Amino acid sequence: MKRKNNKIYNLTLTGVFAALITIFTAYIGHIPVGVNGGYVHFGDTLIYLAATILPMPYAMAAGAIGGGIADLLTAPAWTLATIIIKALLVIPFTNKGTTILNRRNYIAPVIAYLISHTGYFIAEAVMFGVQAAFFSGLTGGLVQSGGSMIFFLLLGQTLDRINLKSKVVVSNG
Questions:
Q1: CA-to-CA dists, residue 74 to 22, 40, 94, 158, angstroms
Q2: How far is residue 26's CA from residue 22's CA, in Å, rounded to a whole number?
Q3: What's the CA gap between 92 and 134, in Å, rounded?
Q4: Among 41, 16, 32, 39, which residue's Cα sits nearest to residue 151?
Q5: How does DSSP classify residue 31?
Q6: What is the model's pLDDT at position 1?
């Protein structure tokens, strides 16, 4: 199927991903942790998936919008930090190639964890102090990023088996 306007298609897919990220961050699997308003969720899995399908600026927008809206709904104090951090999470991933999982995308969730953990540590240190950030960030960050990585790898394997990427990615030619 040939699409006339790749930009409109990518914007539409960005909106779909932003909505899914919001739902999976704010509601599905949303587990509060710590005393500072943090929570564990499955939204990062969908940010990683968006980063493997969409061009980077679109994936960054999906992550920032989806994560930002989720925080507006559940933990508004974190919204600004989340918008920045979730946009940055897509950087280690690549949408090049014919599959979701490739060498780079197997390693990318670990780098995304470092970005997320560092970003939220800085935000929490500014909001609550370094000591609170240190103790709160150790548990929630590891559980959050570890779970997101496992779910991304499982979802990526499943979607690669059905060749999803070849069905949804628009060639730039």
A1: 10, 12, 30, 30
A2: 6
A3: 24
A4: 41
A5: E
A6: 44
